[in-house]
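Retro notes
What went well: the complex prediction finally ran end to end.
Inputs used:
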Amino acid sequence: MSVDPSQDNGPDLTQGVSTETLADGAMLAGHVGDDAVLVARRGNEYFAIGAECTHYHGPLAEGLMVGDTVRCPWHHACFSLRTGEAVRAPALSPVACWRTEVREGKVVVLEKAAPTPKAPAASAAAAPGKIVIVGGGAAGFAAAEMLRRLRHEGSIVMLSDDDAPPVDRPNLSKDYLSGAAPEDWVPLRADDFYAEQGIDLRLKTSVAGIDARAHEVTLGDGSKLGYDRLLLATGAEPVRLSIPGMDLPHVHTLRTLADCRAIIARAATTRRAVVMGASFIGLEVAASLRARGIEVHVVAPDKRPLERVLGPELGDFVRRLHEEHGVFFHLGDTAGAIDARQVTLNGGDTLAADLVVAGVGVRPRLALAEKAGLAMDRGVSVDAYLETSAPGVFAAGDIARWPDPRSGTAIRVEHWVVAQRQGQTAALNMLGGREKFDAVPFFWSQHYDVPINYVGHAEGWDELVIDGDIAARDCALRYKRNGRVLAVASIYRDAESLMAEVAMELEAA
Ligand SMILES: Cc1cc2nc3c(=O)[nH]c(=O)nc-3n(C[C@H](O)[C@H](O)[C@H](O)COP(=O)(O)OP(=O)(O)OC[C@H]3O[C@@H](n4cnc5c(N)ncnc54)[C@H](O)[C@@H]3O)c2cc1C
Ligand code: FES
């Protein structure tokens, strides 16, 4: 990434930095010519890699060094300090890497190093020939990308019933929906990536059945496709309320790029919108519509937004934050009917609305797995290697329930980063690797200028410890059970969030 000449870009690293100013475990941001570069020291080794995360440009020098990797402060991507490789999603592209040398007590950054290809995951003889991925979302895309990074030479067919190539779904309720990001930010990769990488991406292609014994999938048009390994990554779909008016043209749900485009098109002529559901997606949509100058009313049965996940204190804060931005809440109430001009609430109120968005939760898309006879448990049951009960068939993302090493129970979550990391682990294991999926769940949510980061998994807690000041947007909340920290939610405490992640990893080790 290029440095900004109007900013202080730190030292010129080609001139060297005293090794005494760089303690063991320390990182420093500087530049090499026009490139922003991070130098890091581990023992007597010195590394230099690009200073900006390839996800959304997070400043890696403010992240956390763990072994010979650095984790991004914003959404916990992880890069190798030795090679620049993006070893953990959500970043999928490497950062550049430079050679370093210690001369006369200074670490000097030299020329860029050639990219280091990853070692193949399997010997050519053991490698499966044909891999089929059902799903072109977070998990499916990350798996396909990782298969090629692992130098899988066989075929990869990615089947998606969406009409758009894999997109940055979190952006659909945030910057793209608010108008802050152009549409070319949305695809995870340019269209030519798939042909270049030999990934046979078939859009508008639904999979109707799986014959796990015959190693074959049946497509919606009745044709069959054989596989050696299969990844199921069918994600989730929005819940649709069964109330009158849900099928009116101004009533929307949000999952796909097409859904998002339709909301944006409608927003152009909307003065007042009703968002049904005070979920993460519902509230992000509310914030994005406010950014477009639309009056927004949020209707939800809950007492407070997000209380079940984040607790009452953070729930109240989120409510106030949205109210400060002009959102009207109608809590403890639900929509009973919608017509062309208004939404009638069960409590008796009516709200005028030119646009209605339902963000009332999602349902995992399990029909294929159920029909195929795979073991199910409120999701598709997978083992620690993400393999289902059918050998050679893996599952990842919103549909997968996996054994969580920390709680000792099987869990299923609906987080972008978890889906991507599961896709990456499944890719390795489809090639014959034996990597357990043991990543600590992580998600983030953005409300105006306030990011909320959440690491861990707490379905319930008996103690909530608040460190810092929520109203001042400087806090970490620890959700505990029997004295053990299950999860940490934080606002502008990125280092603490990263350290909590590492502590939870060590707990399971
Ligand atoms: C608007 C929005 C914002 C979000 N923001 C965040 C966020 O900020 N942070 C966060 O952690 N999470 C966020 N999420 C959740 C996150 O996007 C999901 O957890 C993640 O996308 C799950 O990945 P997946 O691969 O399991 O499923 P998906 O990404 O949903 O992909 C599923 C794919 O399977 C395809 N498919 C399904 N069935 C079939 C079939 N039978 N045949 C062919 N194809 C099929 C679909 O077309 C799709 O391509 C957000 C979700 C939405 C909708
Ligand atoms: S900006 Fe680095 S992980 Fe998102």
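What we learned: The longest strand covers residues 35-42.
What to try next: split runs per interface for comparison.
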